[in-house]
Amino acid sequence: MPAPARPARDFRIDLFRGLALLMIFIDHIPGNPLSSLTLHRMGFSDAAEVFVLLAGLSATLAYGATFERSWTLGAVRIAGRCWELYSTHIVLLLAVAGLLVAVSALAANPDYLAHAGYRPLFVGTETALGHALTLTYLPNYLDILPLYVVLLALVPVMLPLARRSPAAALAVSLAVYGAARALGLTLPNTPLDGTWFFNPFAWQLLFVIGIVTGLAAGRSERVVPRSPALRAAAWGYLAIAFVAVAPWCDIPGLEGWRLVPDGVLPAMDKADLSPWRLLHALALVYAVVDLIPADTRLAEWAPARAVALCGAQALPVFCIGTVLSRAGEIYAVETGGGAAAMVSASIVGVAVLLLSARVAAWYRAKPWRRSGETGTLPVRGVPSEAR
After folding, report:
1. Which end of the chain, N or C, is less surrounded by CB atoms within 10 Å?
2. pLDDT digits 0-9 by tens, 189-214
3. Which of 15, 48, 59, 87 is nearest to 203 (CA)?
């Protein structure tokens, strides 16, 4: 009996994951004026919430079929991916540290060695490296991959549970989320005397929602039905959040035009995924899915395809973006160009990320292999069909 055909890849997943990655790059250049155009200035949540939810959905679509065949094989695949992400994180940490060392030497400015929480790595290297290898030392802007490692490690447990009972998976995840917020459950960031910026015990809820959504997508079902009431609630909440954050206040001359006074809004803590941020992210995803159908013609638009390619090549794009964001910040400081330098660095950086995605996709396709080539070495005197 032939295996069931895999559902066609949803273009929207790669498109919005690519957009999230480009926004993360822009937001990670401190003081960047272009951050006024990203999600964090349009409402309560930002690109990080979108990325984590889509990560859960994508993980389900990528590994779900393997888990259906064999839980053991699925767990092995997840373990391999976790190792890939972990090792990439370590290399990325050392790459950024190397960049800071080089710039510090060239600019004769030792302050760069203390930049973004890297001081422990240069003052107490032995201790800091030990914490880095155990993911208990995360410099600023290097916390997303460790979060993804922890969340991905949940898949062998949460995916089978969600397949049996989506309600049970969501209930367990919601209980962990509540405990994290009520009891302060989190992971330490020891050398910086703090905790993980993204509390995995809280952020796992978005990831599990993505898993449940991915299972439904694989069955061509909807997790949340379309209805006029839900549509009105989603768009209404997005409108309230937009008015509350008042992005127009970033425009010179409109700084005081805030409609909601400071102190009225509740805390929107990102580390523990405030319920207000969570609801905003869910409302945003619901509204976008409701607005843009699965058979969208955006795939025919070249710029959209370029951004979607970034989403499809998320790991290399994220890593290169992390290094570029630090380089962009350093460029702005060293040139004294301020906002103009940050904008120019952002534009160049986005272009580099789009090109990097194309190169990564080309390399992943293994163009050096000819059609029908098996990759085995020829053995003298043995016919190819016998090998």
Report:
1. N
2. 999 889 999 999 999 999 999 999 99
3. 48
